[in-house]
Prior knowledge:
mainly alpha; 9 helices; globular
Amino acid sequence: MNMKILKYELKRLIFSRMFVITFIIALFFSVLDLYTQIIQGVSGTAPFSKWSYCKFLCDINTIMLLIFMLSCTGLFSRNEQRVREITSCTSLPQKKYLATKCFALFISYLIIALCCILISLAFYKTTFNFRSFQNFLLPMLIILLPTFVFVFGTSMFLGSKGQTLLYAWIPIVLILSLISFNKAPFIDIFAKGYVTYMPTVLPVDSIGEPVFRLSLNFIVSRFVFILVGMVLYMTSFKRLSIKS
Length: 244
């Protein structure tokens, strides 16, 4: 990991006009979603239930990944190809250069995710005086991580074959995020259908809330998405290193 390149890439990404505009949109969407959708609860659950928070994460994950994929397109632009041609003539290993670029993209996604999550925590504290934020750690893990790894790996794989394919992948991801696959977790990449359907069929606890129970099929599907994403990323990384 080259720290100089990492700092440069982060400055270039975070202070770009596209990132700033989409970042503001993501924050605005988070607030809007919390005060219009999540405050009512999801599928009869309390607004601060794990199911409701999963729904919030599904909603913001869509826009966060769209921003991330738009940032990924720069990795396969003509200007970037020229830069790689230049750096290939230096002592800097191409694998290290590509790894640094990818890590900068990951950090940019993480910044947006953390800011949106902090907004949600402030919402729960001020609106409901809810402070048991440790209850949301599992939803963050199962909703954000598998989808991010899958979309990242797929974007890198398609981008390594051609920037046009990556641009075509962006609207497909948007469409998939809008469709609810209630009983098909292996298709429901964003899990939006799953988290709204399951509370309607699960038994309730002592206070009348649907228990937070994840089916085996859902858990396996999340591992499959992570595995596929990692394989596609490694394949694309190897291809890009050879091209350079």
